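Quick one - first record:
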Amino acid sequence: MPQKTLVVVVGPTAIGKTALAIQLAQLYQSEIISADSRQFFKEMHIGTAKPSAEELAQAPHHFINSHTVKTLFSTGDFEVEALELISDLFKKQDILIMVGGSGLYIDAICNGLDDLPEIDLNIREQLNKKLEDEGIESIKNQLEELDPEYYAKVDQANPQRMIRGLEIVLSTGRKLSSLLTANKKERAFKIIKIGLNTDRALLYQRINHRVDLMMEAGLLAEVKSLLPLRQYNALNTVGYSELFNYLDGLTDLPSAVAMIKQNTRRFAKRQLTWFRRDKSTIWFEPNQIDEITDYIENELKV
């Protein structure tokens, strides 16, 4: 019986992960599981760089438009739901493709999450109030002071994850970074990890161009339509926060767009820092399709 294999495609935003995942899904007549923490949400489209309708039609996708921003969908929830889906899909095929730039969600499937201690819900409430009253910068500054290691790798545009780090240290006195022990849980399937990257100047050029395309596609109108939902944590993210600031009159539009580009470049740098720590990931340029498929074929024989 052939071994069940999950091919995982990772890398920074705008590098071309979606295109590669679709090519691999078509090659292996497989399905794609998204591990992008923003593409889950059905209300957010342009700013999350979701696959287009044409791309979605080229291969079956899962965890795209699967949840609403009104519902908290945690990394732990994703681990449970995605593993259940993977188990079901492996009943009819031997190879599946997982793709995404959210390192914690990738790790949840490949390695499993650590069992974290119970936290004081009053502290969570206080931190949420602090976020509401003082903004995300106050949360960033406190996390950087109390757990600089976790701060260095967390998505700093995601207040929910930063609050998670703060509530752990404030509730237990122990840093979340010290509790993420990476005790790997055994999975019932083989995992092959492909990383995509390129020259930094070229990557940043791709990021800037993508932001321009998003604006041309109507990102500002999308953000305006989401004003009634802006209190939900999912919308406190790059591409949305900056335009909310513009709509609030805190900046002009060119400055907001420039800030989206800058914050996205910073996010890409953090993504690479996260993914590079995993020595089992083999890195390629986005256009090295033949080399990537040769590598996968060789790994499938092992």
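second record:
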Amino acid sequence: MNQSDYLRIFKNRISQRGLSLVELMISITIGLLILSALATLFVNQSKTRTELDKSNRLIDNGRYAVEVLSENLRLAGFYGERELIATGVINDPCTTTPTNPSVTEMRDALGLHVAGYDASSVVATIGTPPCGLTSAELKPGSDILVLRRADNTSISAASALSGTHYIQLSNCKYDVATSVIGKTASDFILRERNCTSTSTLPAANVRRFFVQTYFVSPNNIAGDGIPTLKLKELDPAGTGVFIITPLVEGIEYLQVEYGIDGDNNADGVMDDINGDTVVSDGDKDGAADSYVTSCATVECWSNIVSVRLNVIARNIETTAGHTNTNISYTLGQAGTFGPFNDSYKRHVFAQTVRLINRSGQRERP
């Protein structure tokens, strides 16, 4: 490049002293368009992320609720080293009257390893709820599920903590009672297998006793409108009273079906597959012959070997632009729930759980 060309270019450069108004307005407009596009992209991504978070919480809550119920159902009916047979009484699962040789209130229902209270439709309520629960504490359309079991760890009778409910089983042929439930060490008088007619020892070990009542409440905290799966159980702190613990938010409906071993026409009445009127042990093989939504007798409840869980989980927050006007959900024999005509997203979870402690004892090679 010669010197004259260089000077001409330099002069052209220094002659540019600013932008015209038109150029400035065009530049600002382009900048605003770019910012607007970026802001729209950011808002859309934020909304998408929020909805993904809601969906993840919905799925997590539903799965967790089913897993909690399933895990405890698998433990239901475990009392220790031997099977207990129902003694013929259906009572309130939240009674705190301990059992001794003369008082049998808690022990009467030991054979009811699983029991329940049925709400037959989306608007149905349970007429006489157990555990002192009121209609304000219960979500219409949701069942109540009761489980009984013992801890899988045993301790010596002398180590029992006062105020805590324990169960003790007898393996001594000289003991009149087969089981006892108590809250003090002096309640536990049952013995092990190698006892004598006059000995007081060896004392049978004891296990922590659990009674768990699961239900769906319309609120987590009073008035918040968040349906929640809750548990009413004997206080783990050993106060000897029942307390309520919220478990999973967003659980809107719980429907339970019970698989009966020995009932072949789904009427809740024990049948004999051999054609006579008495159910024999040969009719019971540990597999469910039919499923019912409730039982009317102790015999029926004591022959439950599996449980079907049907759960509707709901988002805690609404979704803008979503209207649930044409979506319905089927919960087993309870039928169709919805459409709910609101802005909450929902999902159905279903699982069948085998009651190992009850069905396993009936299996035959």
